Amino acid sequence: MPEPAPEVAFVGEADIRSDFTLTDHTGRAVTEAEYAGDWQLVFFGFTNCPDICPTTLAYMASVLDELGPRAEDVAPLFITVDPARDTVPVMAEYVSAFHPRLVGLTGTDAQVAEAAQNFRTWYERVEDETAPDGYMMAHQGYMYLMRPDGGFEAVFQEQEQPPEELAETILGHIEDEKGAT
């Protein structure tokens, strides 16, 4: 008779953290400290993305709308992985198309790389002569929910659940945190 598989135990916390120095879509230098005390819903992408980014940002906007007044407790952050093209004016125009509370963040190549490393996300420039400027950016499509202290809470993908379900999940985290303080 085969032995039962060992039970998997999870301990500790993922080393995913909100830690960055970037420039917001209004041209203001910001760090994660700007959002201390707020939950953060963070997505990495780029403005020339043909599908994942606009779909995910529209989804994030729907989640914010579903949160109603509690959306004030959540900082929705879109961090570019293409700072060469995603300048402050480009980011300002782009995020305004999705939601008035969405914050676009850009910076130098080094600043963006450091932010991506801290969130443990991946991106890469891919040459493509049919794309704008001859390249696309391959990247992960995760939304990170970060606690008010900047620590990691959860990760989501847009197609995993309808926006109202993600809003309910986020509200549950907000209520749990409020009850614990």
Gist of the model:
With 181 residues, this protein is an alpha+beta fold. It is built from 4 helices and 9 strands.
Mind explaining what this structure looks like?
The protein has 181 residues and is α+β, with helices and mostly antiparallel strands. It contains four helices and nine strands. The chain has helices at residues 52-67, 88-96, 109-119, 163-180, and strands spanning 21-24, 29-31, 39-45, 74-80, 103-106, 123-127, 135-139, 143-146, 152-156. It has a seven-stranded mixed sheet, with helices on both faces. Strands 6-7 form a two-stranded antiparallel ribbon. Strand 1 (21-24) and strand 2 (29-31) form a beta hairpin. 33% of the residues are buried. The mean pLDDT is 92.
The percent of residues in helical segments reads: 25-40%
Low-pLDDT stretches are none
Q: How would you classify the helix and strand content by structural class?
A: alpha+beta
- Helices and strands, in N-to-C order? EEEHEHEHEEEEH
Shape: globular
